[in-house]
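Practice problem: predict the structure.
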Amino acid sequence: MLRMVRDFTNIKAVIALYNALVRSQLESNAVIWAPHESKYRLMMERVQNKFVRYLYLRLYGVYPFYPLMYPTLFILGMVGYHELRVRRDLALISYIFKVLRGKVHNADILGQVGLCVPDRYVWRRRQPRLLAEPRTRTNLLREAPLTRALRALNHIASDTDIFHCSLSEFTMNALIVISYRLI
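Answer:
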């Protein structure tokens, strides 16, 4: 795609083409599948990183590799993108949030989500988790979409009332938690 848009002068057209043709393919089925092995994660991130560096070159006139060696997170922030991992996790958590709030109907997932009922909560020093995470014996189950989403929702629920907040407030808090790897 970068060869095709080399002669374009409108940056917004280049961004729109990338979002429509490439990014949509990279983020498709993000709720169902997200690579947890670093090899596959890096393969997908390289595609976006190449475009982001090209976009940085077009916006600022400097290719951000040699001699400056800007880190990828800096370049992503300068052009207004997030890592693909962040966008996939945000899509997954938002979907589970919508299922819990009744905006999306998915009885199978709703049946697998359990609330933790604390025993003797007053005597404990720490606040208990809101949602029950399944016990994991393998890496595959630990990195399963529902397990990851419940883990993130528990972390977000410590700061935000997920049953009362709006979707935009939830998305903003979830983006902060995911971006800074607080999960």
